[in-house]
Amino acid sequence: MKKVFGFLFAALLASCSVVNVEETKVDDAQTQLEIDLEMYKRVWNAYLAGDQSVISTENFTEDIVVVTGDGDIEGIDDIRVFYANYLTGFSEIEWNIVDAFGQGNRIVKQWHFKGKHTGEFFGIPASGNYLDLSGTTVVTMRDGRVAKEHDFFDMKSMLDQLTKSEGDVVIDVYQPENL
Hints:
Layout: H1 2-48, E1 60-67, E2 73-74, H2 76-89, E3 90-103, E4 106-117, E5 130-142, E6 145-153, H3 155-163
Parallel strand pairs: 1-6
Antiparallel strand pairs: 1-2, 3-4, 4-5, 5-6
């Protein structure tokens, strides 16, 4: 009988140890996600405030991919050029992350961008119009750095706002629910 209780006790201890390892993995994954979210917010807030130095290998993988409707932008040097369009194309920039959450190595960011179109923006000459646009970005992280971004927003609304100086334009503003 002692052997049976000894075996059951040993089995119980072993199973607790497996649970603790799994809980630790979950805790570590959650901690990494929280670190990734904070880093991501910090980087984009700094960038859109004018600090272009944050697009670096400290925050982005060297093989970063940005998915666009015109094809993927690949590599850190090319994404520097790509994102510079926002800083050279607009003044009076107001940008905020409305909501951000994630799971595993993925982050979903809901953003809102406003600015005055005072410079060339992806080939569109300055119009002096104001852009007010909301969108979503799906981000893939790797080793605590951004490895891939894919933006989703209303392109027609953006083009209408940049190129039309009269009439109504649709402004796409996301309002998260208070839970």
